[in-house]
Design a protein that fits this description.
Helix content: 10-25%
Number of helices: 2
Shape: globular
Radius of gyration: 11 Å
Order of helices and strands: HEEH
Largest sheet: 2 strands, antiparallel
Distance between the termini: 21 Å
CATH topology: Alpha-Beta Plaits
Number of domains: 1
Bound molecules: iron/sulfur cluster
Strand content: 15-25%
Oligomer: single chain
Number of strands: 2
């Protein structure tokens, strides 16, 4: 399996904070964490991540 680091978004405009990625992750590796303004964005715990890419697949901003 490709062990390349999973990037859910490069810019905040590419994430609406829908939490779908956190919900779908089979390893509970994605947690929603507040930025400096209190908006929740997903953060991947690299220690837990299985690199299955399910989070990328479910994200409405990816095609
Ligand atoms: S690649 Fe898979 S294991 Fe890693 S954060 Fe995404 S859904 Fe979770
Ligand atoms: S699925 Fe995509 S848009 Fe939704 S919270 Fe995750 S990265 Fe953001």
């Amino acid at each position: 399996m490709n062990k390349e680091k999973i990037v859910l978004f490069e810019k905040k405009q590419e994430c609406c904070g829908c939490t779908a990625c956190a919900a779908v992750c089979p390893a509970q590796a994605v947690t929603m964490q507040p930025d400096e303004e209190g908006f929740l964005y997903p953060v991947i715990n690299e220690e837990k991540c299985l690199h299955c890419r399910a989070c990328i697949g479910v994200c409405p901003f990816k095609d």
